[in-house]
Amino acid sequence: AGNERAAHALLVTHKEHQLASSSDQYVSRGGLPRPYSRTVFFTDRSLYRPGQTIRYKGVCIGVNTEVDEYKVLAGERLTVIFADPNGKEISRQVHETNDYGSFSGSFTAPRDRLTGQMTIRVEGQPSGSASVRVEEYKRPKFQVTLDAPKTAAKLNEKVSLQGKAMAYTGAAIDGAKVRWRVVRQVRFPIWWHWHYWWRPMPPTPSQEIAHGETTTGVDGSFTIEFVARPDLSVSEKDEPIFNFAVYADVTDTAGETRSAQRGVNVGYTALQASLAAADWLTEEKPVEITITTTTLDGEGQKAEGSLKVYRLKQPEKVQRPKLPRQYYPVRELRRGKPAEEPKPDPSNPDSWELGEVAAEEGFTTDGAGKASFTFKLTAGAYRALLETQDRYGKKVTARLPLQVLNPDAKQFPIKIPNLVAAPKWTLEPGEEFMALWGTGYEKARAFIEIDHRGKSRQAFWTELGATQQAVKQKVEEAMRGGFTLRVTMVRENRAYLTERQVSVPWSNKNLSVKWERFVSKLEPGQKETFTAIITGPDAKKAVAEMVATLYDQSLDAYLPHNWMQAFGVFRQDYSRISSHFENMLKRFSHLHGSWPQDFKDTTMTYRSFPWELVANLWGYEFFGGRALARPGMAAAPPAPGEARESAANRRAMDAMPAEQQMKAEKDRNGVEFRKQAGEGRGEGGGEGPAPAVDLSQVTARANLEETAFFFPHLVSTKEGEVRMEFTMPEALTQWKFMGFAHDAALRAGYLE
To answer: What is this structure's pTM?
Structure first.
């Protein structure tokens, strides 16, 4: 027991009964969390060339989760080291943090050493680091887009997609080579898993069904066409959707390659429907069911049909579930044809048969494909079924299981062994948490626990004679980080162990950063001012420090750049107690087998010539006797007649004078040999000289920086206003903005 890493076996004895663990158990005592400090870094971007400036900002924070103390470390003196890919120091700087615990500086990417991933880190405490890459790269010049098909795609018919390659300057990339391929994947409706509970998921590996090459036009556009062939191994009754992923790689005349991808969904129907309802449904309020009808690509589409809500036929008594197993009760037959559906499983409500119709409505979705209905239902188990048709008259269905509860009742109305439900699992301080336990057994009890920070807040047995009971807990400010609800019930040699984390988020640590003035289109060299407003969780204006960057977004094609959106250091409560159901199926074990089998090798071999002689059997004449191919590198030899004819022609060519050889080559290839020097247009031939262009008013662009600005210490006013004044570089491209604001209490907000 003194060794925490040792494996333990548990054996519990009660009178003549024994219970043992089926696997090794490991016990961890843990310990109290210790206070710590760390440094968080921000850089203006992720990718640099040798010689460019790397700008950074750091924030030093202190964390003590034991007392929920989170703060910045002001006045902290520290040393920042810039190291190369081998960990060797390039440069260092000494900083002292300000009132917001932050500091900033810059390094120059080295030219005299190996490129690759380099590190900016703190020497000693508070530890922290950030990685950047220094590479010799070409600035991306263009991007590729793929548009959705203009006409709806159908199975076994041609699908056409339009793509375009456009430079970041807005110019078209013409004459570029396009390589494309199409990969098919099979998807099933969201209700497939629970509706076909008795069937294994059909194997549906992805498969490339088409590929090809094309060239961009003068406007940078190109067309991809393929036939949307279905996977015939999947039954049409399963209502599958075939996702055709189209990949296009475009290479311009300079050798730069950019890629794009787009998915096209095609099915046996041209419409898909879905039903949605809240997880917590009670008979006190009408049950609201939302209908969504869309194309297979997710665009809303108007549809008409019927919606029926059936009450399910419950078993006469609760049936305990079978022990877990690795196989399904009914196996798939070949060619995707499923076997007959087995009888309903009394322990699984998803398999229960439909009963009487409890509610029915006809529906017509709007232009966005939305519609909603409310029904007054009593407590019990239901299933909603939707039927409609696509524009070709094919049937489309959707299904949704429903469980309606009555929290005020003492008896649970559904014949299932165990249920734990709650209106919501995320709450704020000041609210009251409520959960409901229920069982379909006529007599049963459960043990309910609520733990917080390793201590029990509640622990009790449910009332004797009641098969349904509510659990309530007032949420206090000290419960930020959450608490744990644990419900344990044992009945008929089955353990029903429910453990749920109730979330109480650190919403008091959130800042809201929103634009007051932002311009999305700017001209090269333009002077501009952005303005943002920072507010706290109480909607009051907040004073905070903000770091902001605006960099060339095309660099994300090589290495995406992202910042954190909040300090993820706040305590998250969890229980160290774990429960396991140890009953399991014991299968037959292999005791003896693999008897020896005597066999003899009957392979027959024959003598052959050495490789050095036969490898170039035809190559001797093919190369005219002037060269000998190396063993293992000879290509497939031509036919003997072709080899002799080729060798004879080559020997005849070798015997000709130089002028006759040139004439013979001209006759064979249809190509004239021209002199490299002195060749030009004769008098009166060709076009005249082009008119002169006045370039006196044209100035070369000078500021092509890939970072427009990096402001590490923007401090908001009392009104929460942050102003950013800058001059745009002259590079024609798309730019990405990121901003992160924080205050001394580690409240933080993000803007992009």
So the answer is: 0.76
